[in-house]
């Protein structure tokens, strides 16, 4: 893995990588131009966290954000465009080690992952690694399928294509 | 090349034109399964299910692997393409989050420098 990173040309800006490490794990990495103390602060203070967690490009807004960042403390985030039908994410912090490690659960469903974020400082920069461990392969597959709108929709699109192609073949 | 693409499409459409085969794909989307499992689930004979799986396999929608006496079916390379596309989108989401986080980090760094200067003064 290190070898591959070295063989890549030096990026102008810091790159985000995402990798499905195993059947149950997803890993996201990124380097920040600042000490771990500061990056950690931006992940653990709600007023700072709110400023970056929901970028405009997602098209949704963060309706509320409660974070009690200590071992056993809870968090609850609500997103959406319609305040009466928010999408909620919630769970508990199970490890809080200032400036180096943060672990929380995702309790929206039994298939929720355990998220571990580590902050590793080197020469004034911080390598951030976010690791999501799902309870099973099916849970991670489900998360992927869920975000894609699931298989049935794909089939509907194929069905439509089939009709279109069928029609054009009939004409020729 | 066109010929190849056409026969590939034909194979996919033929594979997807059957309700049982679409059901098998949805089932395999949830979990890998043996031919025996699938036959039971769709209440058909082993031979019947083998035929369906064979059609899906030819279309590249399913792959099978025999371990001992059990043949296990899973979603094929097409499914992998879907996953790659998803990971790409997921990366974009985190990338834009982290671009915003960069700004917050930069601002806090500046603030520390200013505060540090004030303290020293």
Name its key features:
heterodimer, A: 172 residues, Alpha-D-Glucose-1,6-Bisphosphate, Chain A, domain 4, 2 domains, 8-stranded antiparallel β-sheet, 36% strand, B: 121 residues, mainly alpha, Arc Repressor Mutant, subunit A, 3-stranded antiparallel β-sheet, 5 helices
SSE layout and pairing:
The complex is a heterodimer of chains A (172) and B (121).
Chain A: H1 2-7, E1 17-22, E2 25-32, H2 36-44, H3 46-52, E3 61-67, E4 74-80, E5 87-97, E6 101-105, E7 114-122, E8 125-133, H4 137-147, H5 150-171
Antiparallel strand pairs in A: 1-2, 2-8, 3-4, 4-5, 5-6, 6-7, 7-8
Helix pairs in contact in A: 2-3
Chain B: H1 2-16, H2 19-30, E1 33-34, H3 35-41, H4 46-58, E2 62-67, E3 70-75, H5 77-120
Antiparallel strand pairs in B: 1-3, 2-3
Helix pairs in contact in B: 1-4, 3-4
Overview of the molecule:
The complex is a heterodimer of chains A (172) and B (121). Chain A starts with a helix and ends with a helix. Chain A has 172 residues and is of the alpha+beta class. In chain A, helix 2 (36-44) crosses helix 3. Chain A has two domains: 2-135, START domain (Alpha-D-Glucose-1,6-Bisphosphate, Chain A, domain 4, 2-Layer Sandwich); 137-172. Helix content of chain A is 32%, strand content 36%. With 121 residues, chain B is mainly α. Helices cover 75% and strands 12% of the residues of chain B. Chain B has helices spanning 2-16, 19-30, 35-41, 46-58, 77-120; strands spanning 33-34, 62-67, 70-75. Chain B has a three-stranded antiparallel beta sheet. In chain B, a hairpin with a 2-residue loop joins strand 2 (62-67) and strand 3. Chain B is rod-shaped and about 85 Å long. Mean pLDDT of chain B is 84; it is low at 1-5. Classes of the chains: A alpha+beta (172), B mainly alpha (121).
């Amino acid at each position: 893995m290190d070898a591959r990173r070295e063989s890549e040309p030096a990026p102008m800006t810091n790159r985000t990588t995402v990798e499905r490490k195993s059947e149950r794990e997803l890993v996201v990495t990124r380097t920040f131009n600042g000490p771990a103390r500061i990056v950690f602060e931006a992940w653990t203070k709600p007023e700072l966290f709110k400023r970056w967690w929901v970028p405009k490009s997602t098209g949704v807004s963060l309706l509320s954000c409660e974070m009690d960042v200590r071992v056993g403390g809870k968090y609850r985030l609500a997103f959406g465009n319609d305040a009466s039908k928010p999408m909620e994410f919630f769970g508990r912090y199970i490890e809080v080690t200032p400036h180096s490690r943060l672990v929380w659960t995702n309790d929206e469903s039994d298939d929720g992952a355990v998220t571990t974020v580590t902050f590793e400082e080197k020469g004034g920069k911080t390598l951030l690694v976010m690791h999501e461990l799902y309870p099973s392969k099916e849970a991670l597959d489900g998360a992927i399928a869920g975000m894609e709108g699931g298989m049935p929709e794909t089939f509907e699109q194929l069905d439509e294509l089939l009709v279109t192609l069928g029609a054009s073949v009939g004409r020729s | 090349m066109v010929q190849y693409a056409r026969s590939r499409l034909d194979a996919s459409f033929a594979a997807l034109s059957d309700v049982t085969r679409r059901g098998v794909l949805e089932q395999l989307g949830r979990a890998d399964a043996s031919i025996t499992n699938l036959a039971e689930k769709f209440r058909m004979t082993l031979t019947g299910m083998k035929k369906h799986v064979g059609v899906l396999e030819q279309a590249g929608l399913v792959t099978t692997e025999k371990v001992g006496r059990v043949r296990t079916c899973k979603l094929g390379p097409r499914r992998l393409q879907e996953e790659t596309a998803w990971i790409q989108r997921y990366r974009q989401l985190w990338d834009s989050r982290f671009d915003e986080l960069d700004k917050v980090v930069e601002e806090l760094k500046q603030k520390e420098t200013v505060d540090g200067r004030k303290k020293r003064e």
